[in-house]
Amino acid sequence: MKGWRKKTDVHQVTDAKPSLTADIHKREISYLIKMGIRTICLILAVVVPVPWPYRLLFIAAAVFLPYIAVIGANERGKPAPPPTFQSPEANQTEIPLHRREIGS
Known about the structure:
Elements: H1 20-46, H2 52-74
């Protein structure tokens, strides 16, 4: 009876999503880093005497970074990969072993 079953793919631990706590922590850290960069850009635009093109660049970063930070913070983790488990198709003409009766 060797070889009568089809080989199936097996789930792997690496297919699992990270926990909700880990996902939220990662998004919080990302948000804080982006808002820290925004604060630095705002300080550079106001305090440091730089030419106007650089000052406009710092102001633009200070204006648009909050939007980018919020979008990134609201984004949930990456979608789960499709399951790799494939169940073998049932053979409808054969009675399963656990359903056979004596004498059949």
